[in-house]
Amino acid sequence: MNDAREAAHPGEVRRPRRFSWRRVYYVLAFLNLATLSLSLYQNHRLLTLYEQAVAINQEWAERMESYGALAQLAAAVNAPGNDVFATHDVERESAGLEVARRRFEQASGAAIADLRAHEERELTAPILRGLERAAATMKSMASEAEVIFASLRQARPDDAAQRMAEMDRRYAEVRRALADVERGVREIQKRNLARQTAAAVAHETNEYFTGALILLLVAAVTAYGSQLAGRIESHERERERFLTQLQEAGAQTRAILDTAADGIVTVDEHQRIASFNGAAERIFGYAAPDVAGREVAMLFAAPSGEAADRFFEEQVEAGETKLGRREGVRRDGTRFPMELVGSTARVGGHPIVIAMVRDVTDRERAESLSRRYHEELEARVQESTKHLRSALARQSELTRRNAEAYEIVRATQAELVRKERLAAVGEIAATVAHGIRNPLASIRAAAEVGREDLPEHSPLRETLGDIVMEVSRLENRIAGVLDFARPFKPTLATGDLNGFIAASLGDLRRRIPETTRLVLELAPGIPEIDFDAAHLHEALEALVLNAVEAAGAGGQVTIRSSLESGENGRPSVVLSVADNGPGIEPDRIDRVFGLFYTTKTSGTGVGLTVARRLVEAQGGQLDVTSQPTETTFRISLPLPRTAMAGEPRPSGLPAAS
To answer: Looking at the domain covering 489-645, what would its CATH class be?
Structure first.
């Protein structure tokens, strides 16, 4: 029996340790939760950044508006001291000065108190100093105005005129202080914009990281699903193989009675245990000497123990092999299912029963676990697939919303910057008009009067002539700045572009030298479009005169019209002006539309800038291309949708030169 206990059993199947794929499922669930949490956090941070950007820009935009109002109030304080020389009503102008001064002091005091209460003292310190300097200078300017009124009351107009110059100088200092304040506000807005842009860029990097995590999650889910499918198929094959092996082992056991794979118990005619092999010892937990001579019923659970007696009696009487399924009892009292294979034999003239006992606990447990595991795997695969699909759909929606929020923030910041620049240009234009134009007019008038009183060949007369010429050049530059600063509101009307070109050139021919050749190449069949004739004439005039100067004496200027397809597929009408001059250098072509950029000694650098604004105000575009022998400016105007739906109407204007 010891040999049987130690012998190897050829029918025994050793199952390798299995890798726990449940841990992979937990890892995937954690990655899914991490991806969703990261996306929600990024979305929250981006929305917070957007709200902060809007709040900060709105706060400083309101301050900028209040500082602009201070400039208007300063002008109102300055006005009575100048207007009194025209109205001669000292009392009314004095009362107006007092009202305007109180309003300025209230507004400036509120602005100063607001900045003093601001949390970032170092950031607002330059602006606060500018406001305090403006308030102090305003008090001095108002005092000068009171001196002017006092001089006029005492009939001393000469003294009043002298004090007016001092008052204007103080007013200029106020304007400079307010300009410094506005520059400080714009500097703060630029800092906030840079900081917000850097934060948005950092979030864009996080978006890339989230996208990579999503791709990793999708790849892991795909691999996990593939592995699960393989595991299910492998488990099914293993189950079938295991059942086949069990059936083969059962057949071998029934065919080979002397095998030691199962427990073998011999029972005598009195139902007492005669022998107990090693397999039976392992099954029941008893040693062979402990059970020898004891009733076999001890190995069966009630009522199976009572039925065991009948089983062995019937086995002896029948004298043939019989199978039975019973519930056995181990030494520790635990019950287990077992199969019995009994056969009869006679030893020494006495019948004995040879019972082969097989513990089927593992088989039933394996079958039960196999069914349950298969069902659980199918349910988990379906549930996991459902959750992953839902998570990926939510992640895709969050990514799209984050991208839209980022674009809105960037577009809003760009629009605020553009408006601030236009406001700054308008303020500069107003300052120039008020502070420079009138003194220039006085200088020019004085120079012209002095020039008339001097002899013909006097050196001083030539110097005064140069002064008049330079003053005229500055006045032209100021006029150009005012043209650029004024708002353009086009009045669109449907018209024939070829006819408009012909009519406009009729007015321009008188300003074109006879040595310059003017060529018209107007394409027939150009449909009518919507444009502002006055604005388009001004733009065409600037382009033609610029081309005439670039072509030089004996040069050629070509004006063309054509119907072309735009970048978005929408047709547009193109008006181009080309010259055969030396062309524009590649490193300067991007600067030709910049304000104050010019290569001419007598130019203002404003014409092309104003021309582009005039064209863009009516929905068109103005661009330039240049080669060493030709430079072309192109005005593209969109074709109305009604004209695209129907046939184009011929213009009826032949090409001319």
So the answer is: alpha beta
Q: How far apart are CA 351 and CA 346, in angstroms?
A: 4
Neighbours of 349 (CB within 10 A): 5
Read off the amino acid at residue 445. A
CB 307 within 8 A of CB 353: no
Q: Is the peptide bond before 303 cis (omega within 30 degrees of 0)?
A: yes
Beta strands in 281-385 (DSSP E): 322-329, 335-347, 350-359
CA distances from 188 to 131, 215, 420, 628 (A): 16, 41, 12, 45
Specify whether the CB–CB gap between 260 and 229 falls below 8 A. Answer: no
User: What are residue 335's DSSP bridge partners?
Assistant: 329
Give the CA distances from residue 367 to residues 4, 137, 237, 245, 637, in Å, rounded to whole numbers and listed in that order: 29, 99, 13, 14, 81
Alpha-carbon span 523 to 541, nearest angstrom: 20
Cα–Cα distance for residue pair 326/307, rounded to 1 Å: 9
Using alpha carbons only, give the angle 626, 630, 632 rounded to the nearest 5 degrees: 60
H or E element in which residue 68 lies: helix 21-87
Give the separation between CA 263 and CA 539, rounded to whole angstroms. Answer: 111
CB-based contact 103:137 (threshold 8 Å): no
Q: Give tens-digit pLDDT for 566-589.
A: 666 678 899 999 998 888 888 777
Report the C-alpha gap between 6 and 245 in whole angstroms. 22
Q: What is the pLDDT of residues 618-645, one digit of tens each?
A: 888 888 888 888 889 899 888 876 655 4
**607 contacts 480 by C-beta, under 8 angstroms:** yes
Report helix, strand or coil for 124: helix
Residue among 398, 636, 421 nearest 539 (CA)? 636
CA dist 557 and 578 (Å) reads 6
CA triple 609-615-616, angle to 5 deg: 90
User: Which residues of the chain does CATH 3.30.565.10 include?
Assistant: 489-645
Q: How many whole angstroms separate alpha carbon 372 and alpha carbon 328?
A: 26
Distance from C-alpha of 77 to C-alpha of 97, rounded to nearest angstrom: 6
Confidence of residue 358 (pLDDT cuts 50, 70, 90): confident
Partners of 530 in the beta sheet? 494
Superfamily holding 262-359: PAS domain (3.30.450.20)
Q: What is d(CA 593, CA 614) in angstroms, rounded to the nearest whole number?
A: 12
> Are the CB atoms for 39 and 399 separated by under 8 Å?
yes
pTM of the model: 0.34
Start and end residues for every CATH 3.30.450.20 domain found in the chain:
262-359
